[in-house]
Design brief:
This protein has about 625 residues and is mostly beta strands. The protein has no helices and 27 strands.
């Protein structure tokens, strides 16, 4: 048994490996008269214990109001903190980055509490719990624990279901990670919620967060954030009411309707929160939907390219799949064309192979001897003697090789060497410093008949452009390859001229200079001028063109006070100089992360040199 302030705590099962700390809160002052005020006026007076002598009564006034500062944006305003049993050093509660961090120290009990009035329509109370640094297991004889209790202020009794008959708390988590929940309490990831539907509106309640440290170790600590009383239904059926739910995600794809760090997939905004196959960055499917939320359904002919049978005769039966109107269809790759004698193929798709009497182009030269069987060329001219008439000789395409040159005059001008009997397609690709290089070139100019083009568009400051040139037949769409890369591998061709692919996300800015390529952001706002638009910048106010994010938490290193995500800030002492006060061994509050690039939530520094063991 342990007496802390005016609250009686009973620690049960001291010799059990899974011992439970069951706080029993007695009436804080059994002979009090509690007077509740609304808008400064007393509305009720309640005698807690009629058995007390009248001379023992004393009046305590409680100002009724809703739960306030649940996001700790105003520090600990509206909250009351206390500790018992601590001396050197005692437990503490401090707010850093909007999170209330409770540290055990050598205290038996560290408490954060607030008294408030349950408002009409509030049917649930929720909060975020992060076990950072978590429980110190150095001494497990009497395990540490963390509990949450909701008492009716007037009676001092639990007002929601507790996790055990002897307990007053509705939520309990043990040092070994085991969690105990009262009926009506649930835990979804870091979010904990308790049912308030049985609590009448206007009821005064007191919420207690308790970190219990009954053993000899001192390093246990937790974080609290987003304490909310709410209602509003449960759109995504996860048990957390929408008003308390930091990620309302009815389709379960990890993205919410407004974007939130609380959603599993970060801050991207789900453009269709009822369709699980639609969310930012999702590979496009052939389904008529805008799967990647860029404003364009089925762009890029998704899922296409597979071989198929069109059901037609001869060469016309050879097909490939293409995406059309949200479905894959089989399109013929050939014909019908003129019959080529002796190849064993029904080229004209009439059911007969290698017939010899046809004159497909009407030039009085039969197909079997016509050097351009689909071009009317009665003279059969063949200047280079390669067997293909001049009228159709574009089968052995020449390439420009490595002759392409780039110069600024003042705009970018691309020139290359002449190749006879062809036209040219010019492609432009781009790279942002925040991404790895990949071939993303799009059609810049098609069917070019000269050997130069001019590009008046300048890349963003942290981007660069590259250009590729292919040759093509003047008639038809036969095109050369894009050559090979430095390793000798064929360059991929994601987009083919003359497709109008410049603005893939449909925001009015072509991808080459779009500061959020692939994400529709018509305003192109970039507050910090780092060439990453506000809509996709992981540090909107701090320039970070490379978008480095060490802990992958969606907050870039340039603005993340805790780059390695271990719960200890680089400037934990708030001096403005990260690293000037490295955390001593085991201390996690009020000091700088002693290993800022390697997660070390316990800040172990065995030799006391100011550099954590994790990175020494």
């Amino acid at each position: 048994m342990h007496l802390s302030g005016n609250r009686l705590w009973v620690v049960l099962g001291l010799l059990l490996a899974s011992s439970a700390h069951a706080p029993i809160r007695a009436s804080e002052k059994p002979c009090e008269i509690v007077q509740v005020e609304v808008d400064g006026k007393p509305v009720t007076t309640v005698v807690r214990d009629p058995g007390c002598a009248s001379s023992e009564y004393r009046v305590r006034t409680i100002a009724a109001g809703p739960l306030t500062n649940g996001d700790f944006s105003a520090g600990l305003a509206g909250w009351t903190t206390s500790q018992s049993g601590g001396s050197a050093p005692p437990g503490t509660i401090a707010v850093a980055l909007g999170v209330a961090r409770m540290s055990e120290g050598d205290s038996f009990l560290v408490t954060l509490e607030q008294t408030f009035t349950v408002q009409a329509g509030q049917t649930q109370l929720a909060f975020d719990l992060t076990l950072v640094p978590g429980f110190d297991t150095g001494d497990a004889f009497v395990p540490d624990a963390f509990e949450v209790t909701l008492l009716e202020t007037v009676t001092g009794l639990p007002i929601v279901a507790t996790w055990a008959p002897f307990a007053t708390s509705f939520f309990n988590i043990q040092e070994d990670g085991s969690t105990n929940l009262g009926i009506g309490t649930l835990r979804v990831g870091s979010r904990v919620a308790v049912d308030l539907s049985s609590v009448p509106p206007g009821t005064e309640v007191t919420l207690y967060f308790d970190l219990i440290g009954a053993d000899a170790d001192t390093g246990s600590g937790v974080g609290l954030d987003n304490v909310i009383a709410c209602g509003d239904g449960d759109l995504d059926a996860d048990g957390v009411q929408d008003g308390c739910d930091l990620c309302t995600d009815p389709d379960g794809d990890g993205y919410g309707p407004t974007g939130s760090f609380a959603c599993p997939s970060g801050t991207g905004v789900d453009c269709d929160n009822d369709e699980a196959e639609v969310y930012p960055g999702r590979p496009e499917l052939c389904d008529g939907l805008d799967n990647d939320c860029n404003g364009l359904p089925d762009e890029g002919n998704p899922e296409a390219g597979g071989s198929c049978d069109t059901g037609q005769l001869g060469a016309c039966g050879i097909g490939s799949e293409a995406c059309s109107a949200g479905q894959l269809v089989c399109l013929a790759e050939y014909g019908p064309g003129c019959e080529v004698c002796g190849n064993g193929i029904d080229d004209d798709c009439d059911g007969t192979v290698d017939e010899t009497g046809d004159d497909f182009d009407g030039d009085d030269v039969l197909n079997c001897t016509d050097n351009c069987c689909d071009v009317h060329n009665p003279g059969q001219q063949d200047t280079n003697g390669n067997g293909a008439g001049d009228a159709c000789d574009c089968t052995a395409l020449g390439q420009i090789g490595s002759s392409a040159r780039l110069q600024k005059t003042p705009y970018a001008e691309v020139t290359w060497d002449f190749v006879p009997n062809v036209e040219y397609h010019v492609y432009r690709g781009y790279r942002n410093l925040a991404t790895t290089f990949q071939y993303n070139q799009q059609c810049f100019q098609s069917n070019v008949t000269s050997t130069s083009v001019v590009d008046v568009l300048d890349p963003l400051p942290t981007n660069f452009f590259y250009y590729l040139v292919t040759t093509k037949c003047a008639v038809g769409e036969v095109e050369s390859s894009l050559g090979t890369d430095s390793l000798g591998n064929p360059r991929p061709q994601p987009f083919v001229c003359p497709d109008p692919t410049a603005d893939l996300d449909g925001d009015g800015t072509e991808e080459a200079v779009d500061n959020c390529g692939g994400l529709a952001n018509p305003a192109q706002s970039d507050v910090d001028a780092d060439s990453r638009g506000d809509a996709c910048d992981n540090c909107v106010l701090d320039p970070n063109p490379t978008q480095d994010d060490l802990d992958d938490d969606g907050q870039g290193d340039a603005c993340d006070p805790d780059d390695d995500g271990d719960g200890v800030d680089e400037d934990g002492d708030g001096s403005g100089v990260p690293g000037d006060a490295p955390c001593p061994d085991g201390v996690v509050i009020g000091c700088d992360d002693n290993c800022p690039a390697v997660p070390n939530p316990n800040q172990q520094d065995s030799d006391g040199d100011g550099v954590g063991d994790a990175c020494e």
